Amino acid sequence: MRILNHEIPSAVGQTVTVAGWVHRRRRLAAVSFLVLRDRSGLAQVVLKGAQEQLDELSEETVVQVTGTVAANPQAPGGAELVDPLIVPLTEPARTPPIELWRPTVGAGLPVVLDNAPVALRHPAVRAGWEVAAAALHGFRSTLDGLDFTEIQTPKIVGTATESGANVFALDYFGGPAYLAQSPQFYKQTMVGVFERVYEVGPVFRAEPHDTVRHLAEYVSLDAEFGFIGDHRDVLAMLRDVLAGMLAAVGSRAGTALERLGVELPEIPVDVPVLHFSEALKLAGADPSEPDLSPADERAIGEWALREHGSAFVAVEGYPMVKRPFYTHPQPSDPTWSNSFDLLFRGVELVTGGQRLHRYSDYVAALEARGESAEAPAYSSYLQAFQHGMPPHGGFAIGLERFVARLTGAENVREVTLFPRDLHRLTP
Amino acid sequence: MRILNHEIPSAVGQTVTVAGWVHRRRRLAAVSFLVLRDRSGLAQVVLKGAQEQLDELSEETVVQVTGTVAANPQAPGGAELVDPLIVPLTEPARTPPIELWRPTVGAGLPVVLDNAPVALRHPAVRAGWEVAAAALHGFRSTLDGLDFTEIQTPKIVGTATESGANVFALDYFGGPAYLAQSPQFYKQTMVGVFERVYEVGPVFRAEPHDTVRHLAEYVSLDAEFGFIGDHRDVLAMLRDVLAGMLAAVGSRAGTALERLGVELPEIPVDVPVLHFSEALKLAGADPSEPDLSPADERAIGEWALREHGSAFVAVEGYPMVKRPFYTHPQPSDPTWSNSFDLLFRGVELVTGGQRLHRYSDYVAALEARGESAEAPAYSSYLQAFQHGMPPHGGFAIGLERFVARLTGAENVREVTLFPRDLHRLTP
C-alpha cells in the first residue's frame, strides 16, 4: 500500500512504500541520497550499501521505494527513508531538457513552452497551474453557494458572436462555422431559464498580435444573473466571487503561493468605484478620450492603493460608443453605460455590466449601429427577449490573466498549460 | 428585498416581494389567478379587484409582485399571495412557440431544439440539464476529494488526436489546425506532472452520421491517474466517480428527477466484470467477433441485471486490434487489452483502461501500426514517456450520453442545451 511523501514524517519507525520520480541523486563518500518527488512533495531516501543502483536511476525515472522511516531533522519534513528497496517502474529516463531539480527554472520561456510536457513537472512551473486550478474551484464553489446553475454551451457557432473580427473559421460538414469568442449570447439566454448561470470553458480569439497578455485560446469564467437593480449589483457579485477565488487559492494552493513568493491581496467588501469621467480626470487624461490608456489604468490603480488601500478598483460608466450593443446605458445620461472594468494592480482584469433586457431596446440598439434585429445572427438570441427577460448582467474573468496578475507573471503563457498564439500551436 | 417562491410558505401573514415570469393566468368569475415562475418553482397570486391588469400580463412577461402571504391548502406549497401589487419589469411578452405552462411538452424535438432559448424554460425540458449540472458537480467533487487536479487543455490542436477521421479542420492564422477529438494525449502527459488529473470540456467529432447517440460537439468528463496496478484500478475509480455523480444528482436535482419520473440506479461496490471472450459467449455471438453489437450489449446488460441486480456491467479485455495504440495489452495474452467498456442499462457509457507507460512500448506499438514514433504528431506526447511516466490509466464519460441513459431520453439532444450535429448549427 503506497503512502504519499508528505505522510512519511508521521510514520517514523514503520516500514512504508512510496512511489514517484527520481528528482535528484547526491553521492557522498560513504552514503548517497535519492530525492523522490510525488504529487505531495519531496522525500529523502538514504542509500548506504549498493550505491551502484543509483547509476541506473537517472533523474525522472519512476520508482517505488520500500524502506524504514527514520527521524532526521535535516531531511524534508524531519524524516527520511533508510534501508530502501528501490524498484524501477519504467526504463531509465532520459535527461530532461531543463533541470527539474534546481530550485529556479534555469531556462527561458520558449524552452519551457516547447518542452511543456516535462517542464511543467518543475515545482515552480507547476505552481502557476496549481493556483489556476484552485481559482477555478473557488469560482464554482462561490457561485454554487449562491444558487447559480452551471451551463456548457457550444463552442462551434454559426456566426461570429460579437464582431466579425478575430474569429476562427472552420469547415462544418462542408459549410462555414466559427469558434465562439465568448458564451455571451448563450449565458444571457440562459438567464431566462435558470436566472443565475455560470460557465467555465475555452473561448477563441484569432488575435493577430503577439503580446504578453493575449492568447488565441483561453479559459473564460463567465457569470450572468437576473433580477438586478443595475451594474452595481453585478460588481458586488463579482467582488464576492473574487473573494471566493482568492480564499480558495489561499486554502488549496498554499504551497504553490509560497514557492512563487506570492502574498494574496485582500479585496475590500466595497471595492472603490470611479466613474469613467472621474477616472480620466484623476489620470490627467483628455476628458474627451473614449477609453483608458495603460498609463491611465496604472494611475488609477495607484490612486486606489493610496487612497483606499485596495489592489482592486472599478471604473464604471465607460462610454456607450466603446461598449457592445447589448450594454445597458446609464439611465441619467445615455452617453455613458451601466458597465464597468475591474482593475487589479492597475490592469484591467474583468469586464462586466448590466445588459439591455427589453426586446424593443435591442431593436433600437442594433438599428443605431446600422444592424438589423431581423439578421439571422441575432434571431435565436433575440427570441429570448421577445419572450420576457428580467433586468440582468454579468461578467467574464480571463483565468490566465487573473493568475498572471496574482502571481506576478509577466506573460500569461507562464501560467497556461499549453498556450496557443499566433506562433504556437504545439505542444 | 426579493424572496424566492419556495420561501413563500414560511412567510404566512407577512408582506413579501417575489419576481419571475408569468407562467399562467386563470380567470374565474369573481377571482383570477396568476401563477408566477422563478428559479425555485411556482407560486400562486390571487387577484380580486382590477383583474383587467391581467390582460397586459401575457405569459412569460417578467413581473415583480408584492403581496401578503395567506395560507391555502390548495395553493402550491400551501400558501399564496393575496392583495398583490404587480409591477411588470418588461414589455408584455410574445406568446411562446410552445406552451410552457402545460405539464408535458406539447411539441416534437425539432420544435423544441429550434426554439431552445425559450423551450428550455419548460420545467420538463429544463429538468434534463438540471440533472446534467448536478452530474458535473458530482464528477468534480468526487475527484477533488481524491486529490485530483483539474486541468484545462487546448481545443485547437496541430494534429488530429487519435485518428484522421471525423476531425474538424480550421484556418489557424493561415495554416491548418484541428479541433481536439479528446484531451487524451494531454491528460496522459499531465499524469507526469500532477499524478491525478481530470478535465471537463468540449470535444469535437465531425460525425457524418445522424443518430440519436452522436453529437458533433459534446462535453467529455475525462480522468487519468498514475501508479495503478492495472485497468481494474481504473474501473474501481470509475465506479466511485459514478457513485458520486449519482449521489450528487439525487441530492441536487431531486425536483428534476421527480418531474422526469426517474428513479436513480444503485451502482454496486463491485461492478460485475466479464471478459470480452466471455461476453461474446454469453451473448451467443461468434467467438471471432472483434466487437460487441448493440444486441450483444443488451444481452449482457440483461445478464447483469438478472444475475447481479446491477444496471452496470463492465466488459474487459477488448481485442487489441480494436483499441487505440496507447492501450496496454493484457499481460497474460496480448491478443486482449487491459481496457474496458462500462455498459449502463445495456448500452456502452464509458470507455477506459490502462495505457502503455514505457517509451519503448510506444515505439513498438506505433511501428506495429505502420506509424513512426518520430512523427511530429507524437513528439510532444512521447516526450513525456521518454522522461519517465508511471503505470497509469483513465476513462472518459460523455455527459449527454450519461444523462440521456439516466433519464431515459431516447435522443441525447433532449438533454443537451444547444446540440450540434450534421444538420444543426443553431441556435
UniProtKB/TrEMBL annotation, chains A, B:
Residues where ATP binds: R205, A206, E207, R213, H214, L215, E348, G398, L399, E400, R401
E.C. no: 6.1.1.23
GO molecular function: aspartate-tRNA ligase activity; aspartate-tRNA(Asn) ligase activity; ATP binding; RNA binding
Key word Aminoacyl-tRNA synthetase present: yes
Pfam families: tRNA-synt_2 (PF00152), tRNA_anti-codon (PF01336)
Places the protein is found: Cytoplasm
Record-marked site positions (Important for tRNA non-discrimination): P76
Recorded superkingdom: Bacteria
Boundaries of every Aminoacyl-transfer RNA synthetases class-II family profile domain copy: 139-427
GO cellular component: aminoacyl-tRNA synthetase multienzyme complex; cytosol
BP GO terms, sorted: aspartyl-tRNA aminoacylation
Subunit-level organization: Homodimer.
Family matches, as PANTHER family: ASPARTATE--TRNA LIGASE, CYTOPLASMIC, ASPARTYL-TRNA SYNTHETASE
NCBIfam families with a match to the protein in the record: PRK05159.1 (NF003483)
Family assignment from sequence similarity: Belongs to the class-II aminoacyl-tRNA synthetase family. Type 2 subfamily.
The protein, known as: Aspartate--tRNA(Asp/Asn) ligase
Gene source species: Kribbella italica
